Amino acid sequence: MMKINATDSQVLVVDIQQKLAPHLTHVASMVENATRVLKGALLFNVPITIAEQYPKGLGHSVDELKPFINDNVITKESFSCFGEAAIVSKLKQYQLQGKSTLIVLGCEAHVCVLQTVLDALAANFNVIVVSDAVSSRKASDIDLAKTRLEKCGVTYVSTEMLLFEWTQTKNNPHFKEISRLVK
User: Fold this and answer.
1) Alpha helices of 67-158 — where are they, by DSSP H?
2) Positive or negative: CA dihedral 13, 14, 19, 20
3) Which strands sit side by side in the sheet containing 9-14, from one edge to the other?
4) Domain regions of the chain by residue span
């Protein structure tokens, strides 16, 4: 595995939604880390796609994600984001632009994140899961998903690891802002 470069990356946010979030393990820190990743993505011009699972029932994305929402939110009904043609089209479009590293965060780790990541691997993405920006209702399900996906070759990183790999050097013009983000 090589370093994660911002120029090769795109971010996929999976189902961090209003009615699901309150039931998740360590939800406050998960959402905080997700927003850190998204702030970093904006700094480095990394494209963001946000998936929402059946928002009529689960609500829309949590308020903390609103600053990152534009025309990048796509509704889905399948657990895997790759079950929704509009999401696949957007991710593949970025992949064709050289952004073949898919940074995944969201919930639930053992259902929608897991199935999305497995399908992303099959679609020839280099998949990185941001460990402290994923969650499930039970910690044991997070651990099981991580173990399974690591056996499939998926790399897990922390938010700070990702942001500093995107930054690469203290001479990067975004270094100070990234340093403030991780404090």
Assistant:
1) 85-96, 114-122, 139-151
2) negative
3) 73-76, 48-53, 9-14, 101-107, 126-135, 155-157
4) 6-182
User: What pLDDT digit, counting tens, does each position of 11-64 carry?
Assistant: 999 999 999 999 999 999 999 999 999 999 999 999 999 999 999 999 999 999
Q: How far apart (Å, rounded) are the C-alpha atoms in residues 67 and 89?
A: 23
**Residue holding tokens 């993505």?**
41
Do 84 and 74 meet the contact criterion of CB atoms below 8 Å apart? yes
Of 3.40.50.300, 3.40.50.1110, 3.40.50.850, 1.10.260.40, the CATH number of 6-182 is 3.40.50.850
pLDDT at residue number 1? 59
CA distance 2 to 48: 22
Beta pairing partners, 135: 107
Q: In sequence order, what are the residues at sequence separation of 6 or more whose Cβ sits closer than 8 angstroms to the Cβ of residue 88?
A: 81, 82, 123
pLDDT of 138 reads 97
Q: Report the C-alpha gap between 155 and 113 in whole angstroms.
A: 14
